[in-house]
Design brief:
The complex is a heterodimer. By secondary structure, chain A is mainly alpha-helical. Chain A has two domains: 200 residues, no CATH class; 303 residues, no CATH class. Helix content of chain A is 44%, strand content 5%. Chain A has 23 helices and eight strands. In chain A, the strands form two sheets. In chain A, strands 2-1-3-4 form a four-stranded parallel sheet, with helices on both faces. In chain A, strands 6-5-7-8 form a four-stranded parallel sheet, sandwiched between helices. In chain A, strand 5, helix 18 and strand 6 form a beta-alpha-beta unit. Chain B is mainly alpha-helical. Chain B has two domains: 195 residues, Fumarate Reductase Cytochrome B subunit (Up-down Bundle); 34 residues, no CATH class. Classes of the chains: A mainly alpha, B mainly alpha. At the A-B interface, helix 2, helix 3, helix 4, helix 9 and helix 10 of A face helix 3, helix 6, helix 7, helix 10 and helix 11 of B. The complex binds iron/sulfur cluster (2 copies). One iron/sulfur cluster (SF4) binds next to helix 9 and helix 10 of chain A. Chain B: It is a multi-pass membrane protein. Chain B: It holds the Pfam family Nitrate_red_gam.
Chain lengths: 534, 314
């Protein structure tokens, strides 16, 4: 069922404005929906779940009228700052243009997987959040809004409900920017969503715990968003060396803190914790290709993530600067970011205009390097070792937002037998997000994961089923290749656990490098296996 | 009285409207253009990179010359401007009306150009642009003017009526349409509609229009018949209103594409972008969340670690 929720309704008292149920959602072929879990009564009492019955932020409503007034005032002060160059030189131009020139044509709506898969619920429209921002901005900061009010659309009341619902709503968008790619004018609702998150974080101190407290703050405190300290990192590397020895029958010494190396490789540290076979595969490949590389054990130097990308310019800048400083200290020639989409986008591209002066050291993503390894002939690959159906996920950050489309395909073509690799629908720059974008993959508070897996990842689930539609039989092992740590997180939680693809269809997931090592002639035992839990 | 009114509208008011339109549009464009350079926020494919695609696909991309092919950028912009490519691809229903409306505008702009050109010819060379002329290209200019004007008015009116119908009947569009959205459409409908009536009733060969433009050139504004006076009033109002409205997206769109989605200029140490951004780092940011340093410069903020002092204090 579609719940009609007008923009004006955001301010209205209602237990839940858009009470989402699984029956509202667009069906996934062959999947039997399980009803959402009942919300715990103590949550209902304490937290605001009045947007859609879910909470990513665990916000408690203000206790007094004064507290509400303070909240409203702070929000307005923050909103004003988005439009001043001193406070927001980083994104003022796109924000101001996106505020003024949307023609309200709704073209962006159908591009959004969250909106479409939710059964086209009004509140998840890409332009819903932006329109609320515009209406509030108009009402409080423009002459026509003050004078003409609802005639020009400045008709949304600003109270704690509006603010809290809007805050929650900013964590219902993956910032995949698929909407922006379809907007005829160029308005970027993904950016507007990020600007709103930024306002909440930088002015009101409101942000998702997984992204802020357990993310960038922990990153800045311990050296990694996983909480892995430099000492723990060194232990992990030893463990990976043991693991490699067990898998390939010889020990590889992973270079750490090698001064003046050609490449400093920075992984998403989540790999070391959850998918150590990925950094292991990198080590095997780079070693076999004779590349002069190193990892850094410096605090921040072994962690590629930058969760500030999704919500806070200052946290973004702090992390990016520290990462580049770690590379500087080692005196490497260039940084290569491992299989992590947002880390690549953040460090290679966005940070380009933060890391000025002597911090402007060359940085690139790993996919072109992997392609070079394949085409250089430094390693011999036997494609027949990857003789199983494979489909490829295009991480939004690397593909739509950086244009890295062909290297991963060229690698796959070189290391798989003909007919095994199949594209999923909308492959390339118009891909769909895995559902883990914008921090969703690391946001696990309250009942948010249920929303994420069931709504945000739903389109990806359908795409994967479509790509493998001719070989869904579980007797055929299949590989969902996602060269991005966050996308793998989403694959693990949503595709494998929530939709049960592993048990039902025998689909496993993993990165690109694992497939490369699996195809190496020199390595006897399969590196990719359907027996182990990856 | 009627004549004075007509003269006031067709003369001083029209001059004023054109001046306001040009001045406010320029001011807005300058304001947008002088906003600070933002962080990179690319969206691919970037047109000027051409078929080779993103530079990030290459190893050590910074060593390669930057691919900026103006022709590809212009081709993409032309498709967007003249065919409304994205609306065609992603919102066909709206394109069915939005395209005729935009085509109507382009034709009318072309028509204005032809009328101005004809007026100049008449003024300078003394050649009469008319279907009865014995000079071939005066005849051709006359035919082109009539065709552009009539087609522009019909298409524009059709497109605007269709868009109005969509906004009234499409439940999803309704909530995103404030009264001013409807006002904009009504204004355009009036502009195209009255123009069409004026053409049919008062000026089927645009002789009066051409004469009127010529009179504006020599600062002796002509008196117009009633419907044309009304059309001039509407046009003046439209010109004054346009740069204040979201219809200025025709100018903003350039910045959206060229300066935001397709701004892939890399920062080179010591280069001008490096210096510009280096300057921004001295801005004082006033955000007040607990993890930020109140009153600190951007540079101080970026090099402060809010998690560290706590650790040391333990
Ligand atoms: S953001 Fe773009 S596509 Fe969406 S409603 Fe606005 S103008 Fe249309
Ligand atoms: S950025 Fe992605 S998730 Fe967010 S509104 Fe746009 S299409 Fe939807």
């Amino acid at each position: 069922m579609k719940h009609k929720v007008r923009l004006k309704d955001m301010a209205k008292p209602a237990e839940v404005l858009c009470p989402l149920a699984v029956t509202d959602l667009d069906p996934v072929p062959g999947y039997e929906e399980r009803p959402f879990k009942q919300v715990k009564p103590e949550w209902k009492e304490k937290y605001d779940l009045s947007l859609d019955g879910f909470s990513a932020l665990a916000l408690t409503p203000p206790a007094t009228k004064e507290a509400e007034e303070e909240l409203v005032n702070k929000f307005l002060r923050g909103l004003e700052k988005l439009f001043t160059k001193e406070n927001n030189w980083t994104f003022m131009q796109p924000t101001a243009l996106s505020t003024d020139y949307c023609v309200r044509c709704n073209t962006c709506n159908e591009a959004c997987p969250v909106y479409v898969e939710s059964g086209r619920q009004d509140i998840y429209r890409p332009n819903y959040r932006s329109e609320l921002l515009r209406k509030i901005y108009q009402r409080y900061f423009t002459t026509e809004g003050r004078l003409l009010g609802s005639f020009v659309g400045a008709d949304v009341e600003l109270n704690w409900r509006t603010i809290y619902r809007l805050a929650e709503l900013t964590y219902r968008c993956t910032i995949c920017r698929r909407c922006a790619a379809t907007c005829p004018v160029g308005v970027d609702n993904g950016l507007m969503n990020r600007e709103l998150r930024k306002l909440f974080s930088q002015e009101l101190g409101i942000a998702s715990e997984g992204v802020h407290k357990g993310g960038t703050m922990r990153h800045l405190q311990t050296g990694s968003s996983t909480g892995m300290t430099p000492a723990a990192f060194l232990d992990t590397i030893e463990f990976i060396e043991d693991d490699i020895e067990e898998r390939i029958g010889r020990r590889i010494k992973i270079p750490i803190d090698k001064k003046g190396a050609d490449i400093l490789l920075i992984h998403n540290a989540g790999e070391f914790v959850s998918w150590p076979e990925n950094p292991a595969a990198f080590a095997i490949l780079l070693d076999a290709a004779g590349i002069d590389w190193t990892l850094s054990s410096e605090s921040m130097g072994y962690e590629g993530v930058n969760y500030g990308t999704w919500y806070d310019d200052f946290q973004f800048a702090r992390v990016a600067v520290a990462q580049v400083q770690a590379a500087k200290k080692l005196g490497v020639r260039r940084i290569v970011v491992g299989e992590c989409g947002h880390a690549t986008k953040a460090l290679v591209e966005i940070a380009d205009r933060v890391c000025v002066g002597d911090l402007a050291i060359p940085r690139e993503g790993c996919l072109p390097l992997l392609e070079q390894i394949v085409t250089s002939g430094a390693i011999k690959f036997d494609p027949s070792k990857n003789n199983f159906p494979i489909t490829l996920h295009d991480p939004c950050n690397m593909v739509r937002l950086m244009g890295i489309v062909s290297p991963q395909r060229n690698v796959l073509k070189a290391i798989t037998p003909p007919g095994c690799f199949r594209e999923m629908p909308n492959a390339g720059v118009m891909n769909y997000c895995c559902g883990g974008g914008s921090g969703f993959a690391v946001m696990n508070s309250m009942n948010f994961p249920e929303w994420r897996d069931s709504v945000a990842s739903r389109m990806k689930a359908k795409q994967v089923l479509e790509a493998f539609s001719d070989c869904l039989d579980p007797s055929i092992p299949k590989y969902y290749c996602a060269p991005c740590s966050n996308c793998k997180g989403a694959a693990r939680d949503a595709l494998m656990e929530y939709y049960g693809f592993r048990d039902k269809y025998n689909i496993i997931y993993g990165g690109l490098v694992e497939l490369m090592v699996n195809a190496m002639v020199d390595i006897e035992k399969p590196f990719v296996s359907w027996e182990d839990e990856f | 009285m009627g004549e004075t009114f007509s003269w006031l509208i067709a003369g001083p008011f029209m001059y004023l409207a054109v001046i306001i339109f040009v001045a406010v549009t320029l001011k807005k464009v300058v304001t947008i253009a002088s906003m600070p350079r933002h962080l990179r926020w690319d969206l691919y494919p970037i047109a000027h990179e051409g078929p080779a695609g993103s530079v990030f696909q290459k190893v050590e991309f910074w060593k390669q010359p930057r691919a900026v092919h103006l022709a590809y950028e212009l081709a993409e912009m032309a498709e967007e401007i003249f065919l409304l490519k994205r609306t065609f691809l992603y919102n066909r229903k709206m394109w069915n009306f939005s395209y005729p409306m935009h085509a109507g505008f382009y034709l009318i702009i072309g028509w204005i150009g032809l009328v101005k050109f004809g007026a100049l010819l008449e003024l300078i060379v003394g050649l009469k642009v008319s279907g009865a002329s014995t000079v071939f290209w005066a005849q051709a200019l006359n035919a082109a003017t009539i065709l552009a004007g009539a087609a522009g008015l019909v298409l524009g009116l059709f497109g605007c009526l269709g868009l109005l119908w969509m906004r009234y009947t499409d439940e999803d569009l309704k909530d995103f349409s404030s009264p001013v959205t409807f006002l904009n459409l009504y204004l355009l409908i009036a502009l195209f509609g009255v123009g069409l009536v004026a053409w049919l009733v008062e000026d089927p060969s645009f002789v009066l229009a051409r004469g009127y433009v010529a009179s504006l050139y020599v600062f002796k504004p002509a008196v117009l018949p009633p419907i044309m006076t009304f059309e001039a009033l509407l046009l003046g109002i439209f010109l004054i209103y346009l740069p204040f409205s979201r219809m200025l997206h025709f100018a903003a769109k350039y910045f959206f594409y060229h300066n935001i989605m397709w701004d892939d200029e890399p920062l080179v140490a010591g280069g001008s972008l490096d210096k510009t951004i280096g300057g921004y780092l001295h801005f004082k940011a006033e955000w007040s969340a607990p993890h930020l340093k109140s009153g600190g410069s951007w540079l101080e903020q970026a090099t402060t670690n809010p998690a560290k002092p706590k650790e040391e204090g333990k």
